[in-house]
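Dear support,

We are seeing what looks like truncated structure output for some complexes. This example has two components. We would appreciate it if you could run it in full and send us the complete token output so we can diff it against ours.
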Amino acid sequence: MNESRNVVVEAPIGVFDSGVGGLTVARELFEILPYEDVVYFGDVGRTPYGGRSKDIIIQFTQQDMAFMLEQKVKFVICACNSASSVALEEIKNDYDIDMIGVIEPGAAAAVKKTRNNRIGVIGTQATVSSNAYAKIIHDVNPDIKVFSLACPLFVPLAEEGYVEKKATYMIARDYLKTMQDVEVDTLILGCTHYPLLKHVISIVMGDEVTLIDSGEETARVALRKLADDNLLNPASSQRPAREGERRFYVSDVPEKFSQVATRFLGKPVDNITRVDISKY
Amino acid sequence: MNESRNVVVEAPIGVFDSGVGGLTVARELFEILPYEDVVYFGDVGRTPYGGRSKDIIIQFTQQDMAFMLEQKVKFVICACNSASSVALEEIKNDYDIDMIGVIEPGAAAAVKKTRNNRIGVIGTQATVSSNAYAKIIHDVNPDIKVFSLACPLFVPLAEEGYVEKKATYMIARDYLKTMQDVEVDTLILGCTHYPLLKHVISIVMGDEVTLIDSGEETARVALRKLADDNLLNPASSQRPAREGERRFYVSDVPEKFSQVATRFLGKPVDNITRVDISKY
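Here is the complete output from our reference environment:
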């Protein structure tokens, strides 16, 4: 399918997100595809997407994609659960390039893991309202029961680093009680911020519940897809191999993003450029 | 000063905010200026402003103002503390129309209230970093000690209606401990969302601390200013008086705003129009 397209295998992989959360996907990608160039765009000037309408999330996602295409990427990962849930299906056929979101990889991993056929999904209001995870899970196995729950305070708690606090455990217990009541054995962290609260969520849900990090799964699916489509950068098989170049773009000033990215990625990130995304 | 301007006294008053918070100002305005027409714009598609950079808050505020001018308003209230703190001084001379923010009214009320000359200010990161309240308070009385604190989780807690919860009290006690330690007798609620948490903040701070609601104060200052400048709508002195017309505009779909506005204003709000603010 890519033969008909003018895709350059040396081109970078594009990753975009409503803000910093997608760095959890990027980190995984850097790990398993170290020789690929990656362009990351974080829409920090308009974050978060999760409480906004389908309409505006589609508009923002189209602008994010326009920027990705300008960067001449060979493949795009939409790392934002809200955008993946409500915009991806609507817009993906408008582009002459492959793009994947975080929903299918997370859903597929959950279907493999569940033993009692009861899967929980936690995410933003947009993700939960879209029912995107449930639709994909039911395509694979209509007998699986899917329970979805919006946990809107998890994003600000994670962003503010308000993690190992008693109040955060209380809010998590409050939100997750219904998930415990319906006895899911697998819980999809359907928002890229939630892995930052993984420890809290795991303690509240208990050891017997498997947590699925959609971001991790997505990076693995991207690797397989690039390999299947012969889109891996040939530099990866040459020795000495050159480490991939990573470029970061954001829609507000880079300082705050730089701090968070450095913390997320475990090393200094300074090649961050500001973009006026409203012009796209 | 308004004689040289082409200001129409029958024109509406403009109120804009980063989202729904400014409705606390609008509600007060409807109360004390029932015969004035009011145009409200809430930038719900890009809310919140408080964690963003000065740069982008200025850009958003300029777009909000461009929309206000298109509505041919006679006077503008910037109801957002973050925009008032970081953008107002920078841009207000660019417009041939009077505009006030929420900082000066809140600061003036606090100066009047304090007995021990120790005032606290709580707000978003942008408001606190700008030091706007302290600057104005010190212009009036340099001997007053001002203590400022960002409480970023208060906005999502208020927006999610997560108010009378134990976790919210814990977070408030956590944040406000430093305010108690420095023994302020007056605390400015320097964010239009915070009045929704007034009960919680009041219980944590204790009866002896006066809470200042900048929104309420701002509506009163607007009334005085319009009267001083002979800008009150003559309809207000005619009988039978016609109730002012209220028009609402938002930068995302109106449904969610409509619910919140109806709750805030105590009656159904349905004349809400969507605006693509990125075009301004």
